[in-house]
Amino acid sequence: MPGNRRSVVLALTAAVMLAGNSASAGQTSETPLAEMDVPGLLRAIRNKPPPPAADPGAQPARMFVIAPVIGSKPDTGVTFGGAGNIAQFRGDQKTTHISTSVFSATVSQHGQTLTSARLTLFTKDDRWLIVGDNRFQWTSQDTFGLGTSSAGDAAVDVQYDFFRVYETAYRSLGKGLFAGGGLLVSTRQNIRPAEGQEATWDSSPFRVYSQAHGLPADSSMSGGIRLSARRDNRDSQIDARRGVFLNADYHAFFAGFLGGDTGWQEIDVDARTYRSLDAQGRHRLAAWVMGNFVVAGTPPYYDLPATGMDTFGRSGRGYQEGRFRGEQLVYGEAEYRTTLMANGLLGMVAFLNATTVSSRDQGEHLFESVAIGGGGGLRLLLNRRSRTNLCADLGFGKDGSHGFYLSVQEAF
Predict the structure, then answer these.
(1) Class assignment of domain 3-407?
(2) Cα gap 396→399, rounded to integer Å
């Protein structure tokens, strides 16, 4: 692999290690809240007094925000809709992580309807953790060849109905340590070429892969289980400023289980770290390394590891969902975060990411080719207690790839 590609991957990995080793540097036991958010700004404009302080002994109230979702990506065109975030401490804030639920519903220029509900819920004193990734979409996606070196101009637009229910329950094993398991079900039905793509349908990457591995050519069904271990001592799942997140999953899918088409096994690892670069916490570094590895069997095409298929669909900013796909995937990202105003109302980020994917069918191995992406964005603080931002990012990738993303939670 050329030295410059290897250097980017190693640099991103080093950033994770640096942030993890220094996650507590310059931090106090409690990160101070920002002074101003959007509701506070509106009260100030209207000369309204701040709301009364909450009773220190009372159960913390739910924190709810809603924001428009406007984006533009090659696979969707312009998208419109809304997203909401509900955050709450379900116990003493000193012993219980904040719980967050993110809901979204959008329609796109290309006629797609996309809805989702993603949950990270901690019970009192972190005894239990419930994680959910649920998607209900009538959508389409440009379908590319496998491997990082796949051509960007040879995609075939494919339409399908996509439904996913991934639910996992974890039991606490000690401070910040969890282990558990869950059920994984996903299906894509009515897979067909988009209008005008009929001539290239039989030679599309999805059809070629499915026929080569004896899989259905017009649908996809997967059912399996997950065993998972997690360490999480971040101060927030919504906008972490310090701490470490480590997660390791073993997935086993079975032919015939809940209608599954085929069986395979996969190991996923995810590491994220956060470090303050100054005593005030105005300048921060966040880093993320993720690996998805099929270790046995043959998944359906759309269940192969791919960019943008993480829980919140935020990996690979600068590229469309599913742009790089294969049996093995390694992803790294580093992001610099800062506030533009001393009161915390406005902020910005700059990010750099790298993806490498392998393909048995194409004879491509990890790190033979690396796709680099990067960009920047602005942050508007919607709720200072939950640290929920309106995030607007512009990302760029190779071969002219680009995208605009608007969401109500940080990418990682």
Answers:
(1) mainly beta
(2) 9
